[in-house]
Design brief:
globular; 10 strands; about 15% strand; three-stranded antiparallel beta sheet; alpha+beta; 2 domains; Aminoglycoside 3'-phosphotransferase, Chain: A, domain 2; single chain
Length: about 325
């Protein structure tokens, strides 16, 4: 009989908690992220649980990187504790750090509790300052990866998987040339911005909440990039939309990291075009329609003003994105 990750998790958890043995737990799959990693919550009682991550073979390199990033983060940043690792099978037993903050934020906004939401987001922006302050080892793998190398591939992914894959739009050569000239202007602007460590996917789905404590997950893609990137990802979240007045208030608190509003809008344009590529792929290729509400929010951000950051991008994409938005009504 194959040794399952549940059996391994029971033995590992018993060793961590210094008990002789644990009964068979209730196992519940968790939603996970946009990758093919799998997550399970193992519950032995109402107050005793853990999470297991199962990483497939094709993500073996990313798995190694995640462990390397965690080794640096664990004492300086709030991330779930990794209790045990089965390296050959790529199983990880980790602390159950709660539920994604997305649900709490959405419910608080529905109640009109903006004060509590502001307090929470201010604390999350503060965590980004801690990330920049370090200190970190000079040889950390994060410093060998640059978000600047991702701009062009991410724009291409958008064209392949949102424009063509989901919207069914193939641009003429003339329109494509103009669009990519606009993308080039965005890249030039982003490459001139001050840089630091970026989580790269810092938003309400990747921050867990439990008993007032926040824990950040999905940090394996951390790298060097514009200091605008993570604040934009957090405050202009594709999964939960904050009131514009609150975004403005919080943005003012990180103005030292955002040279001017043009930098903010250019970063948002790139971030949201990249996100549409991800959502298009998840929906069209993997059938994950759960991403459609996030796609709608992202289209709204772009159509509301971000496209204006680059006229050539706006000229080509606005009619396409307006048609896409109408499909989601």
């Amino acid at each position: 009989m194959t040794f399952s990750f549940v059996e391994w998790a029971c033995q590992s958890a018993a060793a961590v908690w210094r008990v002789r043995r644990l009964p068979t737990p209730e196992v519940r799959p968790l939603a996970g992220d946009a990758s093919v990693r799998q997550f399970y919550r193992l519950s032995w009682s109402s107050d005793l649980s853990a999470v297991v991550m199962v990483v497939p073979p094709e993500l073996a390199e990313q798995f190694t990187i995640q462990l390397s990033v965690y080794a640096q983060l664990r004492r300086r940043w709030p991330v779930p504790t990794l209790w045990a690792v089965e390296t050959n099978r790529r199983w990880v037993l980790m602390e159950d750090a709660g539920e994604p903050a997305q649900t709490w934020v959405a419910e608080a906004l529905q109640r009109g509790d903006l004060a509590q939401v502001q307090v929470l987001y201010r604390s999350w922006l503060g965590l980004l300052q801690v990330l920049q302050a370090g200190p970190w080892d000079d040889g950390w793998i994060v410093f060998r990866r640059r978000l600047h190398d991702r701009w062009v591939p991410e724009f291409q992914f958008f064209e392949d998987h949102f424009l063509e894959g989901w919207a069914g739009v193939r641009l003429s050569e003339r329109d494509r040339t103009r669009l990519w000239a606009g993308f080039g202007q965005v890249v030039d602007g982003l490459n001139r911005l001050p840089t630091g460590i970026c989580h790269r996917d810092y938003h309400s789905r990747n921050i867990l909440l439990q008993a007032g404590r926040s824990a950040v997950i999905d940090y394996q893609d951390m790298q060097v990039g514009p200091l605008t990137y993570d604040p934009v990802s957090l405050l202009l979240d594709c999964y939960v939309v904050l009131p514009e007045s609150l975004v403005r208030t919080l943005w003012a608190e990180v103005a030292d990291r955002v040279p001017d509003e043009t930098a903010w809008v250019q970063t948002a344009l790139q971030r949201h075009v990249k996100a549409l590529g991800t959502f298009g792929y998840q929906v069209a290729r993997r059938g994950k329609t759960v991403y459609l509400p996030a796609m709608r929010n992202t289209l709204d951000y772009l159509l509301r003003g971000e496209l204006a950051a680059e006229p050539d991008v706006a000229a080509i994409l606005r009619p396409v994105l307006e048609d896409a938005r109408a499909r989601l009504e």
